[in-house]
């Protein structure tokens, strides 16, 4: 995905990047690739792939929720900052917490936040199950099996708040048996599936709420 393709595809999902957004993403990419030499952050390193499979993919969350009216968001198992930092770049009004249990990655995130001059964004170097903060939205991208994910996320939700799991193909994860088990405790609000542009890889967004 070229920068021009990135801009075009974002506009299709209702996002018009500013010059500042694009400059911050360029800094993000360069810092990510530089630090990836020392820390295992991502296997995806080509610029066109990072823009498609990390930056654009992180923002596909807007297909299922309007982030303009969100005050607080928690990204559980954020790794190199996907989707939390990308969301913060485009929606600076949101107060974002990034949860990352691996200290090397947490340090990378703190340094990245300084590089990008972001404010009202915090890195929590801990396991999500140890936290008791409450958020409007909790998101987790490619972290754990959908059957286990609620154990790490649902206790972090405000009343009527939403947990969004960002996954690839889920046929083997969300079987009828697993779905029935989950629905005993939680409400599965919506499942949205789509293909990424350019490469047509399948993506799945799942919204869940506490009953």
Descriptive report:
The chain has 211 residues and is an alpha/beta fold. It has a single domain, classed as Rossmann fold. It is built from 7 helices and 7 strands; from the N terminus they run αααβαβαββαβαββ. A 7-stranded mixed beta sheet has the order 3-2-1-4-5-7-6. The longest helix has 17 residues.
Order of helices and strands: HHHEHEHEEHEHEE
CATH superfamily: Vaccinia Virus protein VP39
Return the CATH architecture.
Answer: 3-Layer(aba) Sandwich
Q: Overall 3D geometry?
A: globular
Here the CATH topology equals Rossmann fold
Please outline the helices and strands:
Layout: H1 3-12, H2 19-35, H3 47-59, E1 72-76, H4 84-90, E2 95-99, H5 103-116, E3 121-124, E4 135-141, H6 150-153, E5 157-167, H7 176-183, E6 186-195, E7 202-210
Parallel strand pairs: 1-2, 1-4, 2-3, 4-5
Antiparallel strand pairs: 5-7, 6-7
Helix pairs in contact: 1-3, 2-5
Task: Supply database-style keywords.
single chain; 211 residues; alpha/beta; Rossmann fold; seven-stranded mixed beta sheet; 7 helices; 7 strands; 35% helix; globular
